[in-house]
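Notes from the 1:1 (GR / supervisor)

We went over the backlog. Supervisor wanted to see one worked example end to end before approving the batch request, so GR pasted a single chain during the call. The sequence is below; no edits were made to it. Supervisor asked that the structure be written out right there so they could see what the output format looks like.
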Amino acid sequence: MSESESENQVHAPAPERQVEPSRARGLWHLLEPLHAVLYYAPEVFEEAAGLGLSAEDRWSSYFPFRAAPLGPVGSGAVTSAFYSFAPGMVARYVDEARRVTTSDAALRARLRGVDRAYRTLFGDRVDSPAMEEAADLARRAAEAADTAGRPLAAANAALEWPVDPHLQLWQAATVLREHRGDGHLAALLIAGLDPAEALVSFAAIGAASAERFESRGWPAEEWTAARERLAARGLVEPDGTATEAGRELRRRVEQDTDRLALGPWQALGAQATERLAGLLGDYWVAVIGSGLLPSESTLGIGKV
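Structure output shown during the call:
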């Protein structure tokens, strides 16, 4: 080896380490509360009421606001994209929303609601350099997301980016969580879990209480039928708790979900991903500390 070759080898930069699949789950844990403000903030409910949507429960705005990027589709398309909600529940809220507003109006209203909610939660920090940097990094990750076969991620990624950094952060969080969610549905399909079975098997491992999963609208007889199908496959006990095979299946689902969610973070790079995680901490604390979000959810954050 020549002297110049040796020198080049010594001074060549080391390749950046890869982002581990488990880190995709950690970033989801940080970003999900920032997205979920849309479903719980009073400012968002006020914007929904301004469209003529009911303010009596969060589902009246949840369905039209989350589905708005899909355009003026019917309840069948929303049921498919949302997967684990009972079709009757989806139809009730989507059909009602279609009678009083449009998807375009819902898109504008949800962004106004998030703007107001973020300003309440973060105060002057919405205009801080840290927010601008976090928004830039999150947007870079979101723009790197491959949305092929991921309808909700693709629909949100196709929206025009807001100008304000705090709204860019929210939109990026939304694209990334829907990207992960779409991948999660693929993992459930590979595991052979239909919408009701997905919930029953998740409740069986203690991701949340069965009562919490009732919020997805499945009638008791359909829940029981799903549990019986899982029991026939050896995945749950007669009392609804998971067998070891059931736990292993859900472990594979979560591992596949992490793997399918990894692309945007690999594109961003390990160093920038860790920088974003550090920047998000204060905003995560502000949302969690606000008491807006429920202490238990059907997503199983922190339990799987």
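Supervisor's comment: Residues 19-289 form one domain.
Batch request approved.
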